[in-house]
## 1
Amino acid sequence: MNPVRSQTRNEAGDLLFKCQHCASSLVVNAAAAGMTLNCQRCGKPTLVPMVSASAASAPQELTDLQRKLKENESQRTEITGYINQLSIQLHRWKLRLQTLNERKTELEEELRKTT
Ligand SMILES: [Zn+2]
């Protein structure tokens, strides 16, 4: 039902932590605690905490919340992108309308002169 569950903290005692640079969720063997590893996502060196303290107290709830927060963030980014795109489009249409209005005035003036 929930594929995230098994990744939180398995029997091998893996540590779940976040990259200090890109905040990606990373899982390493507990033996790597206190070491500096290169992030699998951004490649920068990041410190592996001694214990995944917060994950240990309420692992499932925490990952769920983190996952929901991440979903929320990516959705917000998506919507913000749409709004930005449409704002630009709206601006273009306004400029186009303005140009057409100016052209209309010109044409009406020419019409007045010729009649
Ligand atoms: Zn990273």
Note: The radius of gyration is 28 Å.
## 2
Amino acid sequence: MTSCAIVRCPDYGMDNLRQAIIRIIESTDFPAVKGKTVLIKPNILSDAPPEKAITTDARAVEALVAILKERGAGRIIIGDSPATQVARLQPRASGFMEMAERQGIELADFRERNRMHAIDGIDVPMASALDEAAIVISFAKAKTHQLMSATGAVKNMFGTIPGLSKSPMHLRYREPVSFARFLMKLYDECHVDYAFLDAVIAMEGQGPGSGTPRHAGLMIGSASGYAVDRAEGIIMGYDSTPLIETAEKLRPGISEASYPLLRPEDLIIPGYRRIESGKKDTFRTLVLGSVRNLFRRPSSRRPRPSFDAGKCRACSRCVSICPAKALRIESGHIAFTKRRCIRCYCCHEVCPFDAINV
Ligand code: SF4
Ligand code: SF4
């Protein structure tokens, strides 16, 4: 059985990060990296400072980079493509750019270099760095997620689809279960060798872009991204999440793991502010999901977003990402055509001014 290592890591001090990651690596099936090209895919949802807990912490990725170098890794690439990316990737505020320069490693721009993959009968552009790397590592951030209840190692690889090219996937896979099925196929296509989860500071409440940082003091790692995500869900206090419930129905046992160090059941964070909305549809949509997709009807059980005119600065980020073309800027204000909304919550994910509520 795959092993999943959970260790305590009280803060982002380099010594603590280093000890945590080495302990994880030594307790699990970490791949040999000597002489190989390694791609690390952190979550850089938007270029936000680390204290907001929106991104995988660049210091945690830097600790891993140093360890990979010590183990003889050849070329090391890090990369992501935020959903609203329209220009060259330059994540300065989150610390990734400076870290890449300091470590002398490559920051790949998935928008500039990608190729089509056939997934589920459609052509999906994905980062060319996936083809160049012999070892692929998902380094996710522990966060709540409006549609999927939690975002972790598997969902993190959605970022290998460049920028706004993600939007049609939201239009096609509108329900948590159908989106989970797509994420599983995408994860297969990425051939991920190992997954880490940065849960030193996690995000609770209105994740993944507008939630509240919550100290969890944990780092998780496994060769199975599903095992990592299952542990994350348990620690957050979920009975299950749409991703794990769907994955277990389709491939029984996929998220099971042994825990050689700490057990997730012993680490449940009291009062963690979760998002249950996606989970309510799980069983029904597993049966009816494909029929609903045919008729393009979103679940009416999930709420639509609402817009706070006082906070909105008419930056248009939500307008560009909305797959249903339900948003526009009119006379300097956000305008919302409710009947078009498919409740994908992409707008909520990308608003930098906390002007969208779900
Ligand atoms: S308004 Fe927001 S939730 Fe509705 S379809 Fe557009 S991006 Fe998705
Ligand atoms: S709601 Fe947010 S993302 Fe949309 S235009 Fe206003 S400030 Fe920008």
Note: The mean pLDDT is 92.
